[in-house]
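Students often ask why we bother predicting the structure of a whole assembly rather than each chain alone. The short answer is interfaces. A chain on its own may look different once its partners are present, and contacts between molecules only exist in the joint model. In this exercise we take two input lines together and write out one structure for the complete complex. Read the inputs first and try to guess which parts will touch.
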Amino acid sequence: MTQPLVKVEGLRKLYPLHKGVFRKPTEYIHAVDDVSFEIAPGESLGLVGESGCGKTTTGRMLVRLTGASDGQILLQDDGSMIDVAHVDRDGMKRFRRRVQMIFQDPYESMNPRRTIFDTISEPLQVQGIGTVAEREERVAELLEMVGLIPAPTFMFRFPHQLSGGQRQRVAIARALVIDPSFIVADEPTSMLDVGISISIMELMLNLAEEFDVSYLYITHDLAVARYMCDRIAVMYLGKIVEIGPTEELLANPRHPYTRALLSAVPVPDPSSVRPAVEIEGGIAKAVNPPPQCRFIGRCPWVQDICRRRGHPPLEDTGNDHLVSCYVAKESV
Amino acid sequence: MNETAIERNGGVQSGRPILEVDGLVMHYRTKAGDVSAVEEVTFALGRGEALGLVGESGCGKTSVAMTLIRLLPDNAIIKEGSVVLDGLNVAELTDGEMRKHRWADISMVFQGAMNAWNPVYKVGDQIMEALEQHFPDMSEAEGRVRIAELFELVGLSPAMMDRYPHEFSGGMRQRAVIAMALSCNPKVIIADEPTTALDVIVQDQILKELRKIQEELGMSIIYISHDVAVIAEVSDRIGVMYAGRLVELGATDEVFPRPRHPYTYLLLSSTPSVVGPRRRLAPLEGEPPNLLAPPTGCRFQPRCPFAAEICASQDPPSQELAPGHHVACWHWEQVPELGRLEA
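Now the answer. The structure tokens for the assembled complex follow.
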């Protein structure tokens, strides 16, 4: 890999559980626990998992909406790597020019009392870029790029006058307006109807190429991740359990959790028969988890080694495909 | 899918269907005018059959369900048509009469119902309340036996009936909702987005459970979902709704490989999948119409790639292309086979 755009190492987020008002926390939810990955310039990485697995927390830490408890997030900026966790005020402003976020809910992510122009031009205003006329021109240009045409008719409308799909287009325009190099997209299409969500996905793919931007694409839907991402990372209870190039990972899922997740996805073809899902039960919360593998309680493959040793490290099985499982390595 | 329960007869079930919906028209009266939510919808549900209704939000699929079970808001009017449930036209019943049949003959798993349990009562007690309404002579002990049965049927431990909703996971709450819907032995059950808020692994468990129950009890079920992949898995037949109309209806294994309505075609080609070749998906441009003033002619015509002059002026009638396969489109012959373009 060339120099990565984003490099995450040992990222951790612990949420304390307070048992009483004045007591010190004795237990922690390990929402994100020792997560490491890299994203290359122009690449999109899918972060996939069930609700509560820590994928959104990871995304929020990457844009510094949530502070990390531990670990490092490095972002390439003009050839040097900046440490996202320790940037000062000026650095923060620079950081915001490089990194943006698109949220899941287009109904909640916009100020209802501000016009579309205000919403999209806000980053320009904060960064002090351009005159009002120039900003207007830039916003019009972006509105056209995201398919809100003719731009002047959308510019001074309010969010409630737009449909969900149109709002998500506005959110994309807002994220792109300052030419960032990295966007965290948290389930940007999960609240939209299929036809509309495909047009949003297509738009994001086209604009990624045009703006040369990388995505961390957070989704619970493997089919969507397949469509959007070059690589996929599967998270389970705060840990990345498997990561690899999209088609390689889907064709040869190694981790028992990935296999279960993959075989549980319904297929829009009545003639196809899915393999049986081997695991049972639902996802729990990782409150002071034992040192062993996080998946041990639901794993159909558990062996002695899993009980004796700590959470398995992510190890390369070839083809850039990493798996965190003691048993998977031997069985394939 | 469920070949033992359904006697297939050239795609049409033999015997009288359990539910027959004929020419159903339902509007919501608003200050701005009438919203034409359900427009001339006709279909039948065979005994032991699973029918899937699919479409975008606002297409009328939940409105159809609410009309069938007669839980409509005050401003809704059934303008035309009949809903015959095992020989009884429920569209004509008074509210009081309907109360005897709702839950007992036709019941429903509502969208999001798993979050509607009253948090301060035990789950079993809440089901008991429903049982008492319909079986006033049932003793408490009999009721508990019945609830234990229902819990086992949906894969919950009977001991859970004495627990509170917060002690249940999302999947377990949904199982309990299904148990409640089954409590009065309905002939027909409507499941509205039964797994939408659940993670895929739990979704898989719930759908399997529903299919098992359906086979065991020979129950007839209407699934409602926006997700064609879910419908593909659970339904014997599929009905595709667009802007209040049922635009295509047919056996799932006929419609999926060869959709005949342009909307079905676009819906299927815009659904990503984890299996099969990775292909470019065709976006479905535009937005569904405003049902206060639906477009003239075919309602899909403004978004349809095959639209011609006739489509804007005349509403296409529903035609039966093959036994049991109905399509409402002037140009169904132009709809291509599902493209599998490699990305």
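Check your guess against this: Residues 118-167 of chain B form one domain.
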